[in-house]
């Protein structure tokens, strides 16, 4: 197991008091796997990703559970040890490429700096590897991009530079948080394809955080569906998307306009998006669930089905 | 109802919109789809009077809207807009009643009084799925989906014939998007509205629109009935756009 998160709970201290954000999240990633985390706003998908690299602000407290990367306890690591993971063993790609790049530094220099840091090579060698890394993310003229500044590139090219930065010294795990959400669909398709190819070539595992079920369908081997800071369903992508057993996942897929007849209204999930300030005691989806019963006011059990397909729901107990 | 003829907009030397022509019939939903920079919102802005065209004609019920760089308002309140981000399109210092009734300022006194009455407003907020108690509250007290309902109430209070919907669900979660799309469809039926639906989301466009125009670098490269466009796109770019769409069904 490359990454194993077990029963992770986490709270934020805010003006309104202590707010639980993650509630016993368990998640694992095997070497070479592409694993999706899908959810709407407030589901905790980004917080889960950031907790792996301990990137959360100081107002976040880990209240339970563990994160193990290759067996090492991430939460128990000293700051120096975690620095050794960031970028080198676990790479990260965020939604907005402009904020991930230094606007005052040429692309080549940014890349070469990272390569020298991680691989301990000479400047000349790092420069050569930087051009290679740009070629690997299918830049048409890597020599030219090497000399350019971020503002001279389009959004799609910038995100490819960020992927090049993350993959130049292939990490064992790449965490990609909505990597293509800011991009146009045609560019998104290119960047996703690229990430998939790089993962296959280098054996890097990918944790792909997205709100887009279509992206999960096209990219991921397995998927975790999150709602209200908990994992409500997980399993092989086909199983979860086409044979879902959880009322939330099913309702979410039903609510997509894709492939739905024009003449009929979409099936909606009633109510508002999850609000952490009004967290229910029992099942997090309780107030919006079409199938709720009195029992749902208690925390639902995690039920394991075939092929590791799991749901957290009282309904699944039958 | 609405005709756009050889519409052009240049920003400096860049042609944001280039020779675009289309027409929209009463009661239909016409979609404009394209990626960022394709000119779709610029076209919407020229129709509703926010941006003067460099060249070309926009006419609404046969009346030219732009003459000599001046916008000639159609019948007050007959053409309204809903924008993408209800966070920034609602004034945080106004309560919901003030926000919703603001467009009435353009109407004649008698109509204004009728439409700002408690009975009328109660019916209006109920129609968009809100509650009359909400009228005295402020935008920050509402979620994104509710704010978009408020923006829709503000757009329909004048009983418009035509609505420009500029990415109305792009900032919303999927579960909330479905609610708003259903609301827009039922309002269209109840009130006989005509829509210009601007979006980058192909599956939303397919679900909502009767006819669709595809924009690419400011040009309308293809236009067709929605199903025909989606099943047999003619232009290479339309084909590429459809092929790029990450879809659940492609996997199965």
Care to give the gist of this entry?
With 318 residues, chain A is α/β, with parallel strands linked by helices. Chain A contains 11 helices and 12 strands. In chain A, the strands form 2 sheets. In chain A, strands 6-7-8-3-9-10-12-11 form an 8-stranded mixed beta sheet, with helices on both faces.
Q: Report the C-alpha radius of gyration of chain B, rounded.
A: 18 Å
Chain oligomer state: heterodimer
First-last Cα distance of chain A: 31 Å
Count the beta strands of chain B.
Answer: 12
Classified in CATH, the superfamily of the largest domain in chain A is: P-loop containing nucleotide triphosphate hydrolases
Class per helix and strand makeup of chain A: alpha/beta
Q: What is the beta-strand fraction of chain A?
A: 15-25%
Q: How many H/I helices of chain A?
A: 11
Q: Identify the biggest protein-protein contact and residues per side.
A: A-B, 39 and 37 residues
What is the CATH C level class of chain B, in words? Alpha Beta
Mean pLDDT of chain A: 92
Indicate the structural class of chain B.
alpha/beta
CATH topology of chain B: Rossmann fold
Domains of chain B, number: 1
What attributes does this structure have?
heterodimer, A: 318 residues, alpha/beta, Rossmann fold, 2 domains, eight-stranded mixed sheet, four-stranded antiparallel sheet, 11 helices, globular, B: alpha/beta, six-stranded mixed sheet, 37% helix
What do you see in this structure?
The complex is a heterodimer of chains A (318) and B (252). Chain A is built from eleven helices and twelve strands. Chain A has 318 residues and is α/β, with parallel strands linked by helices. In chain A, the strands form two sheets. Chain A has an eight-stranded mixed beta sheet with strand order 6-7-8-3-9-10-12-11, with helices on both faces. Chain A has a four-stranded antiparallel beta sheet with strand order 2-1-4-5, with helices on one face. The two termini of chain A are 31 Å apart. In chain A, helix 4 crosses helix 5 and helix 7 (155-167) packs parallel to helix 8. With 252 residues, chain B is α/β, with parallel strands linked by helices. Chain B has one domain (2-251): Rossmann fold (3-Layer(aba) Sandwich). Chain B has helices at 40-47, 86-89, 96-101, 109-115, 118-127, 144-156, 174-191, 202-208, 226-231, 236-244, 248-251, and strands spanning 2-11, 14-24, 29-33, 55-60, 63-64, 66-67, 70-71, 79-82, 162-166, 194-199, 211-216, 219-225. The radius of gyration of chain B is 18 Å and the shape is globular. The interface between A and B is large, with 39 and 37 residues.
């Amino acid at each position: 197991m490359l990454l194993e998160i077990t029963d992770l709970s986490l709270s934020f201290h805010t003006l309104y008091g202590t707010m639980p954000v993650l509630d016993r999240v368990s998640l694992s990633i095997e070497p070479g796997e592409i694993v999706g985390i899908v959810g709407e706003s407030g589901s905790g998908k980004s917080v889960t990703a950031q907790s792996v690299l301990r990137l959360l602000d100081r107002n976040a407290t880990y209240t339970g559970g563990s994160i193990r990367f290759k067996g090492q306890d991430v939460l128990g690591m000293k700051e120096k040890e975690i620095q050794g993971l960031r970028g080198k063993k676990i790479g990260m790609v965020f939604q907005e490429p402009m904020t991930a790049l230094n606007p005052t530094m040429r692309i080549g220099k940014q890349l070469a700096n990272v390569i020298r840091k991680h691989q301990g090579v000479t400047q000349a060698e790092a420069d050569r590897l930087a051009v290679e890394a740009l070629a690997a993310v299918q830049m048409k003229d890597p020599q030219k991009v090497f000399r350019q500044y971020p503002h001279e590139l389009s959004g799609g090219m910038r995100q490819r530079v960020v992927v090049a930065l993350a993959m130049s010294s292939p990490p064992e795990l790449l965490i990609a948080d909505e990597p293509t959400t800011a991009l146009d669909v045609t560019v998104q398709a290119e960047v996703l394809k690229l990430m998939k190819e790089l993962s296959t070539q280098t054996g890097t595992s990918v944790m792909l955080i997205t709100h887009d079920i279509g992206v999960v369908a096209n990219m991921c081997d397995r998927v975790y569906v999150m709602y209200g800071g908990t994992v409500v369903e997980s399993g092989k992508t086909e199983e979860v998307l086409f044979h879902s057993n959880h009322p939330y996942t099913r309702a979410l897929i039903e609510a997509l306009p894709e492939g739905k007849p024009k003449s009929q209204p979409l099936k909606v999930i009633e109510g508002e998006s999850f609000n952490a300030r009004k967290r229910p005691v029992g099942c997090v989806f309780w107030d919006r669930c079409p199938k709720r019963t009195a029992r749902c006011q208690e925390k639902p059990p995690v039920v394991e089905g075939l092929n590791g397909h799991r749901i957290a729901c009282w309904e699944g107990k039958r | 109802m609405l005709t756009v003829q050889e519409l052009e907009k240049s920003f400096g030397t860049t042609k944001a919109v280039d020779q675009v022509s289309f027409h929209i019939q009463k009661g239909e939903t016409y979609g404009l789809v394209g990626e960022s920079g394709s000119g779709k919102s610029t076209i919407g802005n020229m129709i509703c009077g926010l941006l003067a065209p460099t060249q070309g004609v926009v006419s609404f019920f046969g009346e030219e809207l732009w003459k000599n760089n001046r916008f000639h308002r159609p019948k007050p309140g007959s053409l309204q807009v809903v924008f993408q981000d209800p966070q920034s399109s609602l004034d945080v210092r106004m309560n919901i009643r003030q926000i919703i009734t603001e467009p009435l300022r353009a109407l004649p006194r008698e109509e204004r009084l009728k439409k700002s009455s408690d009975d009328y407003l109660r019916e209006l907020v109920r129609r968009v799925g809100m509650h009359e108690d909400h009228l005295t509250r402020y935008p920050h007290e509402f979620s994104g989906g509710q704010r978009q309902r408020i923006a829709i109430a503000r757009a329909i209070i004048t009983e418009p014939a035509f609505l420009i919907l500029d990415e109305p669900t792009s900032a919303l979660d999927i579960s909330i998007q479905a609610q708003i799309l259903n609301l827009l469809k039922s309002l269209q039926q109840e009130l006989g509205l005509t829509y210009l639906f601007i979006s980058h989301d192909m599956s939303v466009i397919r679900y909502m629109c009767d006819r669709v125009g595809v924009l690419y670098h400011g040009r309308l490269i293809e236009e067709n009935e929605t199903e025909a466009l989606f099943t047999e796109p003619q232009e290479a770019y339309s084909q590429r756009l459809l092929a790029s769409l990450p879809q659940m069904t492609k996997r199965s």
